Amino acid sequence: MGYLVFSDEWNRAFADQINQNEAYRKAAADWEWPLVLMLEPENTGVWLDLYRGKCRSARAISAADWEVADYAISTNLAQWQQILSGERDPIMALMRGKLNLRRGKLLKLARYGSAAKQLVASAAKIPTVFPGEATGNSIEILSPKSVANQNVKIYVTTSPAGLDQDSFPMKLYHKAKRLGIWNPQDIDFSEDIIQWQSFNPTEKEVLLHLSALFQ
């Protein structure tokens, strides 16, 4: 029997798991802002008082929390299932609009990608159930192990001998060259390199996350 997500029991268990997570303590050593997580459209959620790698308290949210929280994130049932099971990266979910950043700055939040992943890892250790959307029954959360065992095809374009010319992406590349659509070797990246070197580390990290969406 698990805890209903964002219930008082679940919130307390979440705080306990966060405080037992040494990796989170290190990754969030300079994080000093409360975080609100909310389930839509029920408007239930948790207020996490996070400060320098520790969770000082966790409680059910109130209407006033949206006005004072430094960071507030919300989404629907299906997305929370994927996030809290470890199936979906939280920072990437924010960039793709799967998570709604109601308060706070994405650029600043992106600096704490490792801390966000450790929050998810802490939540994944809680026996969690979600409210049923249509039937009223509870739905058991997917475990990270069950997700990892799913058969997902991955294309790899390199091998010990170099580029794998028989891989699907490389075949598309050569087809585009043959048909004269475009030739990457003809593109001048000199200005792009200069612009890239002018970015600060946070800007580079965010751009790398965004570019990964198109790979």
How would you describe the overall organization of this protein?
This protein has 215 residues and is an alpha+beta fold. It folds into 2 domains: 3-144, SCP2 sterol-binding domain (Nonspecific Lipid-transfer Protein, Chain A, 2-Layer Sandwich); 158-212, no CATH class. It is 42% helix and 20% strand. The protein contains 11 helices and 10 strands. The chain has a 5-stranded mixed β-sheet with strand order 4-3-2-5-6. It has a 3-stranded mixed β-sheet with strand order 1-7-8, with no helix packed on it. A two-stranded antiparallel sheet has the order 9-10. Helix 1 packs across helix 7 (113-124). Residues 133-150 and 152-157 have low confidence and may be disordered.
Write a brief structural summary:
It is built from 11 helices and 10 strands.
Rg on CA atoms, Å: 21 Å
CATH class category of the largest domain: Alpha Beta
In one word, what is the shape?
elongated
CATH fold naming of the largest domain: Nonspecific Lipid-transfer Protein, Chain A
- Elements, N to C (H/E): EHHEEEHEHHEHHEEHEEHHH
Strand elements, count:
10
Mean pLDDT over the residues: 79
Structural class estimated from helices and strands: alpha+beta
**End-to-end C-alpha gap:** 40 Å
What characterizes the major β-sheet?
5 strands, mixed
Strand percent estimate? 15-25%
Helix content: 40-55%
Strand line-up of the largest beta sheet: 4-3-2-5-6
Number of helices: 11
Domain tally:
2
Reported CATH architecture of the largest domain: 2-Layer Sandwich
Mind telling me the CATH superfamily name of the largest domain?
SCP2 sterol-binding domain
Unreliable residue stretches: 133-150, 152-157
